[in-house]
Specification:
- It is built from nine helices and six strands, in the order E-H-E-H-E-H-E-H-H-H-E-H-E-H-H.
- It is of the alpha/beta class and 240 residues long.
- The protein has a six-stranded parallel sheet with strand order 2-1-3-4-5-6, with helices on both faces.
- The protein is globular and about 45 Å long.
């Protein structure tokens, strides 16, 4: 069976988040890129505001792939920041039905049980809310500073914050290997929190860092591409 990826975006992100990475991965693997309510082809729908509602929606999309014949044993789930929490929940649901997945790759997030309750920002007034996003490096500075784009994105940013802040913060234990990534200076994921991903996964779980802050994991698509290929057991050199 063919290895395939299912990828989940950061706060405010959509289907285009990983386009530079997926462009090459699609040459050697199938990629499932779900559409989140409130963005891309689902602009007419309200964005989900709870973790349960969003993961239920994404689970239905993933189940459609599995029902169409995709092999869960060949699936690599990946998510950055908020997406890491989404991907982890879907890995846990697969494990709960006895199928599991090939690997889970997470970036820019502590494991669910170590999420900070005191870092909640969704209740702040607009200017303070946007400043907090900028301080954490969650969204690109250009998006935060352009008035029209900011007005368009604020409802989505707030909805996604509500999703993260409603996470039940439960311990997760998976049988598949977990590869956890973070920037070396990520204010949201220190070394201890990054290392805490290892006992979440099965044999072969490990961590890796790249230089920089929260979004540095996405800075060079080639680095992320190669790490995802490694987690999937793909040799991109052979395919060139």
């Amino acid at each position: 069976m063919t290895v395939w990826f299912s990828v989940y975006p950061h706060l405010g992100g959509g289907r285009g988040t990983y386009l530079p990475v997926l462009r090459e991965l699609r040459r050697v693997a199938r990629c499932h890129v779900p559409t989140l309510p409130g963005r891309d082809g689902r602009y007419g729908e309200p964005a989900c505001r709870t973790f349960r509602a969003l993961t239920d929606d994404l689970w239905r999309q993933l189940r459609a792939e599995l029902d169409a014949g995709a092999d869960p044993d060949e699936l690599v789930l990946f998510g950055f920041s908020m997406g890491a929490l989404l991907a982890t929940e879907l890995a846990a649901r697969l494990a709960g039905q006895g199928s599991g997945c090939r690997a889970l790759v997470v970036a820019g997030s502590p494991p669910p049980h170590l999420l900070d309750a005191d870092r909640q920002i969704g209740h702040l007034p607009d200017d303070e809310f946007v400043a907090a996003l900028a301080e954490n490096g969650v969204s690109a500075p250009t998006m935060l500073s352009e008035a029209e784009l900011r007005k368009l994105m604020l409802p989505i940013w707030r909805a996604d914050c509500a999703v993260v802040e409603s996470h039940p913060r439960t311990h997760v234990r998976l049988h598949c290997p977990v590869l956890a990534l973070a920037g070396s200076d990520d204010p949201l994921v220190g070394a201890d929190r990054l290392a805490a991903w290892v006992p979440v996964g099965g044999p072969g779980s490990r961590v890796a860092t790249v230089p920089g802050g929260h979004a540095s994991v996405l800075a060079d698509p080639r680095v992320l591409r190669d790490l995802l290929a490694e987690a999937a057991g793909l040799d991109l050199e052979v395919s060139r």
